[in-house]
Amino acid sequence: MASSLLHPEDGSRLGVMVCGHGSRNRMAVAEFARLVEGLRPLLPGVPVEYGYLEFASPIIRDGLERLRQQGVERILALPAMLFAAG
Questions:
Q1: pLDDT beyond 60 at 86
Q2: Could you tell me the pTM of the whole model?
Q3: Rounded distance, CA 27 to CA 66, Å?
Q4: Which GO MF terms are attached to this record (predicted)?
């Protein structure tokens, strides 16, 4: 099932957009970026980008544009949040 999701039968190019809320805390933003960097090797051949709703860059629109520039025709949007733990 995952294979058919990542490689659509119609031949269209799929990309993954990881959508975060964003934070004013630079360490939180950097941690989110590292999370996405760790995802990329797990999805070889699938473009993976990210963006934030607010408080940080890149914004979601920028990530979508990067996917478009890579020839992506279909996007799997993956909402993701990191929570601080004590």
A1: no
A2: 0.86
A3: 24
A4: lyase activity; metal ion binding
